[in-house]
Amino acid sequence: MIKTDVCFEEMTQREIIQYMDETVKPEEGVIPAYIMGDPAIYDLEHKKVFLKTWLFLGHESEIQNNGDFITRDLAGYSVIISRGEDGVIRGFYNMCTHRGMKLCRADKGNKGRFTCPYHGFTFKNNGDLIGVPMQKDIYGGNLDYKSMGLHKVTIEIYKGLIFGTWNENPEPLSEFLGDFKWYIDLAVGRTEMEVIGPPQRFVINSQWKIGADNFVSDSYHTMVTHGSIAKLGMVPSAQYSKKGYQVNTENGHGCNVGMPNPLFAFPEELIPEYKANLSADQFEVLSNLKNLIGTIFPNLSFLVSHTEVKGQAVSNTTVRLWRPIAVDKMEVITWFLVEKNASEDWKRRSREAFILTFSPSGIFEQDDTEVFTDITAAATGQVPLSKNFNYNYTMGQHRVPVQDFAGPGTVYDDKFSEANSRNFYRYWLDLMKA
Ligand code: FES
Ligand code: FE
């Protein structure tokens, strides 16, 4: 029997974790509303999830040339990702080692060295301290430059996606992604991809998990939330999003593979490149792909969808970060990616398709943000916790995984399922308890 009138403010961290263990029951499809709206849970997941796992920072093509850099957020802390004169990509904590000033305040640029705005210490873009104003006079020439390089941030790259972590002893990125790489390859590794333009950013009053959850499993909402697109004739029917597979793998990752598609929505001249980069099975799926929507745990989602622009099927590819700012607020950051070797005309049409659908002004995006903010409001505060209000995540529990799909993971032959969310919250809970 679950207690009511629980108050986290009066409980120790150990008691909160124990309460979560009793009330969050992913396998039974029981997810309490309080995990979306309680500040104690938000603080705990910062420590247990965001300071422990790999988090997305950006795409290699954003820093193509030696000296290019971007500044990004890693679990609430600014970091500099820079390509050195030797072509190597490195990550640094964006803090001067003298007195802690934020070293670089630009979003991106090209610099061989960074000079601190406070006292003028200068660091090379490989992190080395190389200049201190008047050092001979004021430090007697004794300042130990070697020990004062920028603090390094652990980064690893998979198919152009740059991830970083604060974990001192992380599982290698490749193992963390595991079997899910098969699907990530389809989304962003099918050929050389490049990011066009800076990422688009907007802030909404939504808890971050609602976005991650929506992309990991929720194809079901499409027929209602986005029902207007069927009415407008942009998709054949409101149940358009049901056909295909729902797949999850270890570590909370999951995606929805929309198939079949009689139209090939990728540049045909790149077929030899796709075949060179993908296995025969992966290419077969790509050839029949209608859309691919998923989440890499915890908060990076991706989307490959196709839209008809001026009578022609055009795919567009995006990755998006649900960056938590507060328990009830997140920044949504969306990168538009396109095949680097596609024609300029293809790139333009693909971008147009993105703007029309999932950019901040796109028809899908606006539908979703309305829902996310209302869920957040209803989950916030003491009432959902003390009254023990739960969400129902039992959809698809009666289904058994299929064996005839070529890709790895636990695969269901229907996208209308909440199996991926159950898998996502199981891993989330395991980390929260660790
Ligand atoms: Fe950067 Fe002093 S804080 S030079
Ligand atoms: Fe949606």
TrEMBL record:
Record family assignment: Belongs to the bacterial ring-hydroxylating dioxygenase alpha subunit family.
Domain of life: Bacteria
EC number: 1.14.13.-
Domain (Rieske): residue spans on this chain: 55-164
SUPFAM superfamilies: Bet v1-like, ISP domain
Sorted UniProt keywords: 2Fe-2S, Aromatic hydrocarbons catabolism, Dioxygenase, Iron, Iron-sulfur, Metal-binding, NAD, Oxidoreductase
Gene3D superfamilies xref list: Naphthalene 1,2-dioxygenase Alpha Subunit, Chain A, domain 1, Rieske [2Fe-2S] iron-sulphur domain
Record protein name field: Aromatic ring-hydroxylating dioxygenase subunit alpha
Keyword Disulfide bond: no
Residue stretches in coiled coil: none
Pfam families in the record: Rieske, Ring_hydroxyl_A
Enzyme class: oxidoreductase
Classification via PROSITE patterns: RIESKE, RING_HYDROXYL_ALPHA
Annotated GO MF terms: dioxygenase activity
